TrEMBL record:
Domain Aspartokinase ACT: start-end pairs: 377-433
NCBIfam families: asp_kinases (TIGR00657)
Organism this protein belongs to: Pontibacter saemangeumensis
Name of protein: Aspartokinase
Reaction catalyzed: L-aspartate + ATP = 4-phospho-L-aspartate + ADP
Database matches in Pfam families: AA_kinase, ACT_9
Domain Aspartate/glutamate/uridylate kinase: 2-275
Keywords tagged on the record: Amino-acid biosynthesis, ATP-binding, Kinase, Nucleotide-binding, Transferase
Entry similarity comment: Belongs to the aspartokinase family.
Matching SUPFAM superfamilies: ACT-like (SSF55021), Carbamate kinase-like (SSF53633)
Recorded superkingdom: Bacteria
UniProt GO molecular function: kinase activity
């Protein structure tokens, strides 16, 4: 079994959907995971925001505009009047469902149902397209098997069991289409795996189905050595270990959802990042293999808050760090980076929802300082001891940029620094110029 996930741009127009249909040909069994068409989830977020504010006329105008966009897709995608009618009826159902939200109380539950419409639409439209072209396939509802628990973590055992139940209904089928991103939560309600979550869906489905390979088809030829949206002259990396890819995804490489490498790593399933616009390009293979000896890539994660706790008295006494960590645990707020000295502990979080409560509790231990608008810049590679010199190259490149924290030694594949977000572009550019040995694409 193979899992093939196509992102928003890859299914973003009638023409792109046609390309996807040609990329999934072949007899070997496949589960194809689709995102919403590009722009749709953003539009749904905007519709939800408008509904929260009770601006119903504005919400209706946004819904109508999105509906019109989809009518155009239907016009371009299908050739027969029958399929056009079937698809337009489907659109009417989904968009009337959205319009109904303007008449009800709007809460987080309704918001999640709104956000789910993008993937429900893209998969249904694609399934109709396959039907029109005589390609046998089955549309699997992700809401029947994809589930998160009360801690918002995927319930791997449930997913594996229910996916088998769904697949077993179609013993002769080899091509399955399903939605990325959407799931049910512990209360059985519609929920999602957070923005960019279709990658995570693909990896969870791959692990659940014991797949041979997970392919993530997107709009770029693999994981680049630096953020191509910010830095010129980046190049794709042919091979990454699971740990290296997980660090890059977690620390901001948008091509992969932050958690999406973990399920594949646990089942040792190779992940390939491929380009829908350039299917012949080599892309990136992520596997257990670790090619040592070099700095591979840089990623940056914005929206970081740094918290420093200063205490002359208790600090570094045993039990102190545990008390600090317990505060974060109580508020279910993960810590990304941590550094200690004799008189202070600094750590970072990316979720500041409970920041005020956390600070109030930490103040019991000492003086607390908070710095917002920070960015973690994470350099990934194989930093085993004998490769001395990597640190020097990194800090030489960053010599003009004030560093708030430095973290090294937590794993063999990551050196991270914390900087003001205002210095991010300069930091990524300087690192690009200063730390990579290779300068040509795919060298
Ligand atoms: P999809 O809709 O297919 O999921 P995304 O927009 O989520 O696509 O991810 C692909 C985008 O990620 C690329 O177009 C690129 O701009 C961005 N990106 C950020 N960092 C990297 C990186 N290190 N390598 C490749 N792409 C990256
Ligand atoms: N459609 C969702 C989003 O835009 C999920 C995804 O594309 O992966 O975030
Ligand atoms: Mg994505």
């Amino acid at each position: 079994m193979r899992i093939l996930k196509f992102g928003g741009t890859s299914v973003g127009s009638a023409e792109r959907m046609r390309s996807v249909a040609s990329l999934i040909q072949g007899d070997e069994p496949k589960i194809v995971v689709l995102s919403a068409m590009s722009g749709t989830t953003n539009a749904l977020v905007q519709i939800a925001e408008t509904l929260y504010q009770n601006k119903n006329a504005e919400a209706n105008a946004l819904i109508d505009a999105l509906h019109d966009k989809y009518k155009q897709v239907v016009e371009e995608l299908y050739t027969t009047a029958e399929k056009k009618k079937q698809a337009n009826d489907l659109l009417t159902n989904h968009f009337d469902h959205l319009r109904a939200f303007t008449r009800d109380l709007f809460t987080v539950h309704e918001e999640r149902a709104v956000l789910a419409q993008g993937e429900l639409l893209s998969t249904a439209l694609f399934q109709f397209f396959l039907e029109e072209n005589g390609i046998p396939s089955v549309l699997l509802p992700a809401l029947n098997f994809m589930k998160i628990d009360e801690n918002e973590e995927p319930d791997a055992a449930y997913i594996a069991k229910q996916l088998q139940v769904e697949l077993a209904k179609y013993p002769d089928a080899t091509l399955f289409i399903t939605q990325g991103y959407i799931c049910r939560n512990a209360f059985g309600e519609i929920d999602n795996l957070k923005r960019g979550g279709s990658d995570y869906s693909a990896s969870l489905i791959g692990a659940a189905a014991d797949a041979d390979e997970i392919q993530i088809w997107t709009d770029i030829d693999g994981m680049h050595n630096n953020d191509p949206r910010i830095v010129k002259g980046t190049y794709p990396i042919a091979q990454l270990s699971f740990d290296e890819a997980a660090e890059l995804a977690y620390f901001g490489a948008k091509i992969l959802h932050p958690s999406s490498v973990t399920p594949a790593k646990q089942k040792n399933i190779p992940v390939r990042l491929l380009n829908t616009m350039e299917p012949e390009a080599r892309g990136t293979t992520i596997s257990a293999e670790r090619i040592g000896g070099s700095i591979k890539a840089v990623a940056a994660k914005d929206g970081i808050t740094a918290i420093k706790i200063k205490s002359g008295r208790m600090l570094l006494a045993y039990g102190f760090l545990r008390s600090v960590f317990e505060v974060f645990e109580r508020y279910k707020t993960p810590i990304d980076m941590i550094t200690t000295s004799e008189v202070a502990v600094s750590l970072t979080i990316d979720n500041d929802r409970f920041l005020d409560e956390i600070v109030a509790e930490l103040e019991k231990f000492g003086q607390v300082e908070v710095d917002r608008d920070q960015t973690i810049v994470c350099v990934v590679g194989d930093f085993i001891a004998k490769n001395s010199g990597s640190g020097l190259r990194i800090f030489q490149a960053l010599k003009d940029i004030p560093l708030r924290m430095i973290s090294f030694g937590g794993s063999r594949s990551n050196i991270s620094v914390l900087i003001d977000t205002g210095n991010k572009v300069e930091a990524l550019t300087k690192l690009n110029e200063g730390i990579f040995e290779r300068t040509t694409p795919n060298a």
